[in-house]
């Protein structure tokens, strides 16, 4: 039987819709399993500073639908230092916390991995980031919501683009990965999608635009991943516009609204599943792993692998868009 | 090389959000592959009556985001008869249509199966129904949107339930399956979920409500699948209310709004993927099959199996809700 | 100078989106004017029972966008009795509350009026109800949100109605008034709108449907106010369907989702304006009045008039729909 | 009796949500009054080029809920010339169009005014712009929708701002007017609102932020109108950030999504009302006027006045926000 009596849960790094649903699931799964559970504010920073509070079932009532995170999030410079982590460990002892569930991205898991090596403390991670750039899970919490947010915004832009026969370059988030751009591009019927995983030949885009946009289309949408090597929506728009002053070009950077909002049903179910799975993993004597969803089933991957490996975008989706944008 | 030169596409049975995205994908994938493509109005009824029109790329512009189906849908009694299908076949010959893509549910595929047996015509099906009750695919087109629609509606009801400390019984669609109820129940943090796949012991629900709702909760949501054996939300609400006049009970039947609305990003990507996959399957000499998504990859299942087998709800989700509703 | 040092705020009766925005405005306007302010839970019930808590600026942070009411609401039988109001008055003295702001509908204001007569206590009302049925204000808080909720739901139903060429009877809230039905009917392009303020001749509707729906329309939407004398959507649908078995008729009762949801921008601005206006009115020595918006400006109307007079629906809107539904 | 037998309708300038609802109302009101009606594509450009098509009732079915404009819009350089307007007039004669309804903003009305002076043709304008910057109407079509779009986007940003205790500068549209910024700022509970109509003292903002944001607030939102004299969100953010490197500042430019989307119920009702009113005005022998809504009633204002006068923002709303942001 597991010796864990009390667990702590925190959110760290960039926030993502569905983090609250995950917190709720961790808290209730802990209580269901007769564990005590505390919430740690501000990520690792709050662990170091002892911003810790007992969580009961009622404390997570009516939060499943809320964006953001009730535990707040922060990036902690101090936790990167040996002393920082020492303080964190002292707080865990002082508060009798036996194990941690950390919700975040690869930065969060890197910190967790070092911590668990130094102090032999069980830590289980839950993938929470809109970017979907984590190896070991098909979906990260927040990704589906972000895609829907982008899709709704681009639908709106399509209205005005069509009314004026305009060509829009729309930049979406995703750090150095193209997951958001790719799926939202397909979902919005984008004429082209520029992602870091595929080299952007401006010349090809030019040819495509001349062939399709000028001849057939009443509006054009090019989705640009923020990490695309072309340098972002403004740069590529300028380059295209230079050669084609006859295009009526506009640029839109969707920005931080992609990080917020009430989570989609999909993200809530994923977050609920993974929150329970994280507590299960701790009770199952796991440590230094991330729980994920692979082919619809809960899976475990070591922090080490989750951090080191790069998740690939689906080539089939890239091909799909080439077909659909004719 | 395939001898198919011209394909027809139709939507049949209950409509579902994302059908337009699927039509768009079929049309463009056909054109991409140098095929001619026609749209058939009103499902099989329109095939019998020759309501057929040529589709070009532009005809499916700007429809990916629209609910409903631009080809309209209908249930055809005539297609169930030998003569009806004879007329349909004659129309196909007259219009030089070599193969069909049919978008719909099991009724649609049953008709297609008989038709393909009688006339040796290649027909490929795309699963389009909000109910998700088709064997051979993890997701049907429209399911994710319906769950989001339910989730948003229940979020609204939760607001007023909390303000008044009320207990709501909310009935959702799904025919004789509990897929919509189960996932939307988890997504909305429902206190209980009643689905046909699990026997509903009113007594158990009573006990749960007395233990949880009365003691801890500031509001209560019970999601009831329309096919649940308890007889629907009104019946079960009455039964519970009879024994507990002190509960402030309300009932809401969400109804047909679950069938409409702009499709979610997830459904649009699924519909786009399956539309292209259906044309690929035809070019690959497939017939009498449904294309689906299994573990994120395109799969084929015979109409026969898709119709005969019953898709199971995930037990893990049932257990999940028991944990999360404490 | 006003002798008011401390005010209490409560929400009572059916909740409405925007009540939280109004609470926020009352609390902050009070603090801005150097008053103390307390929140009273559960309406008059909480006043009687002393469920009272001090409110600071931070307590109303981040609630402007939330549906429901953080103070909860209830109907209080006890407050209708002399003893109930006596207890309420004693609580006010014990808690040193000099005046009240009550947010609700005519039931709320009726109670307030008696209370202020018996104890000479300044009470100012804010109109909070989705029904818009209060004399003395052009808009009540929650009305615009409810109309948008209905409009979005009917848009979804229109999708599926068009796909199947169906005739829908959709019942909306509004108690014995037709405000919600009328504006949402126009906003959704309804083929007909049935409201209590206009007699419903089933025969006329029949004629209209035969002339328009059968001949020209690909779908039909009839919006029915819950208070309509025809007896509601089910009754009227049955009556029409009896004579016209060839119509493909469906009924949808939108229900309690109309009471919840994040308030629209319009409702938030109205609630913010009226919340500040209510505190201003108290400081201006007003009592027994409701603040409202008339022609975009803050106005005052006595509780007496607000309760007794009946607000009329705009005839111009009735005529408008006759023109637009051709 | 009016000698008008046939009218034309066009949309011009920047598009706005609700333009389709206005087109629908114009077309149906014309038919209701036994007039013929044609749609003119691409604004004045299409009038010059004869892009004109007959409109029947069915042509405007199911468009009330769509963003953009089915008639498309454009800015026409040629219509600014004498020859351009001559061609337009010739087209009107050739097509037997007796009068025009033009939907747009002040540029649209300026063109209309000159045209009606030169050729004595009745032209009635409908105010369609998200900016609400037209004198003679309380609301322009698209304004309410744009505010709701901004409000939903800022709600999302608030989620992530709160999770990270960040200060956001969010730039919204409105050309040289602050209407969108002001109402959406109040609706989102913005900590500060910068609009062209009020001088922005960076120093004051600094003081406010130091007093409020640093001491009390868990997040900060500053709404900046694009026309604000401070130079836009980036400039002001940089200025504030220079002095306060300790603030965690982010900038978001909401961009063109503000111009699209399904119109709000309010905009649909306004558009429907004004569409009918425009046809009524023509039948009433009006010319060279804009129809508007003042205090909820239809009003007429000459193009001359609508163009020359500047609509003022409500001072009461400015004061309101100072109170509510404490």
From TrEMBL, chains A, B, C, D:
Residues 6-282 form the Phosphofructokinase domain. Mg(2+) binds at residue 106. It holds the Pfam family PFK. Keywords: Allosteric enzyme, ATP-binding, Cytoplasm, Glycolysis, Kinase, Magnesium, Metal-binding, Nucleotide-binding, Transferase. PROSITE patterns: PHOSPHOFRUCTOKINASE. Allosterically activated by ADP and other diphosphonucleosides, and allosterically inhibited by phosphoenolpyruvate. One of its GO terms (molecular function) is metal ion binding. It is an enzyme of class 2 (transferase). One of its GO terms (cellular component) is 6-phosphofructokinase complex. One of its GO terms (biological process) is fructose 1,6-bisphosphate metabolic process. Gene3D superfamilies: 3.40.50.450, Phosphofructokinase domain (3.40.50.460). InterPro entries: ATP_PFK (IPR022953), ATP_PFK_prok-type (IPR012003), PFKA_ATP_prok (IPR012828), Phosphofructokinase_CS (IPR015912), Phosphofructokinase_dom (IPR000023), PKF_sf (IPR035966). Catalyzes the phosphorylation of D-fructose 6-phosphate to fructose 1,6-bisphosphate by ATP, the first committing step of glycolysis. Belongs to the phosphofructokinase type A (PFKA) family. ATP-dependent PFK group I subfamily. Prokaryotic clade 'B1' sub-subfamily. This is ATP-dependent 6-phosphofructokinase.
